[in-house]
């Protein structure tokens, strides 16, 4: 079997580096063909020397010469800038894109890859939150799979293998609850970024770690699931499961529930998506039922963690509302990470932006781009006030 050539967009991130670990552990199955990073030139250079891709992109144009010179003794082509991401995504030289960029920035390159018929291993959930209808339609037209990397969606995807046209009654997305599970607003108002960045079960990039602490992540995941699995609003339930052993469940129309379980380790859904439909043997630690364990489940507290309620509302309204929610949230999270606003202010920014930006029921791609820009500007104006 020829090796699958993977294009890792966001190779220096939490998902990207773990995808490279999977490639390093399975050199007979995969090669890293394209690597991209935004600012971390030194790690990108190190990865390029180790994995010898044909092409790398450094987003930050100020870093172009550093990367170019460091790789001058190799055949690796070096590009820079936002447009280069789309151009490189359009190359024929790879077999699958691992979409590991964080945020809205991942949308355009992923769209390009779909348009030229490349299968996608999708970590970048924001792509589906912003323009899920267009992404799924284009993927269907090109007959290419979008295989989720997000652990919950990978779980559901795995539960659906072999089920053909059997109808889903509902899915249950599990949530760890994040570091502030059980806390109330009087505690959250004083939360600082260092505390919010400590997730109990997963080690991830800064943005998704904050989203996990506010439960926005689970809201984004509900919207992601709606598009991936063609579900309606009332078919998606969230359950807090602090141990993160059951990664999610599907309930079929006969009432039967299927769950996918295991220790929390993103390398598992990453390698599953990259190798699908095969499974790859590994030595990752196994979950042990003989050790004392309790698996517990609770309803999420949407009155305290209002971001989840806002995301559910955006999903119910549809149109460009999830795009507005996502843009405002990105601005709010980065402002919180720069200590510009408090933990609960993030929700205010999202709520006010959703109330202000014009609703469009069936937006086209350009309208999504415009909505994103308008929502960002408005959200930023709230923070500078
Ligand atoms: P991260 O911050 O660790 O890495 C992000 C990557 O994207 C980096 O390589 C960075 O260089 C690149 N990047 C950042 N901004 C960019 C921009 N403007 N243009 C181009 N590239 C840019 O993030 P992460 O935790 O790896 O998450 C990546 C995506 O995967 C997110 O959408 C996240 O929601 C999703 N995800 C992550 C995890 C996890 O365990 N980390 C789990 C599930 C889903
Ligand atoms: Mg997840």
Structure description:
This protein is an alpha/beta fold and 385 residues long. It folds into three domains: 4-148, NAD(P)-binding Rossmann-like Domain (Rossmann fold); 165-263 and 286-317, no CATH class; 320-385, Orthogonal Bundle (Rna Polymerase Sigma Factor, Chain: A), CATH 1.10.1740. Helices cover 46% and strands 15% of the residues. The chain contains 16 helices and eleven strands. The strands form two sheets. The chain has a seven-stranded parallel beta sheet, sandwiched between helices. Strands 9-8-10-11 form a four-stranded mixed beta sheet, covered by helices on one side. Helix 13 runs parallel beside helix 15 (345-356), helix 14 (321-337) runs antiparallel to helix 15 and helix 14 runs parallel beside helix 16 (365-384). The chain starts with a strand and ends with a helix. The mean pLDDT is 97. It binds nicotinamide-adenine-dinucleotide and magnesium ion. Residues 150-152, 221 line the site of magnesium ion (MG).
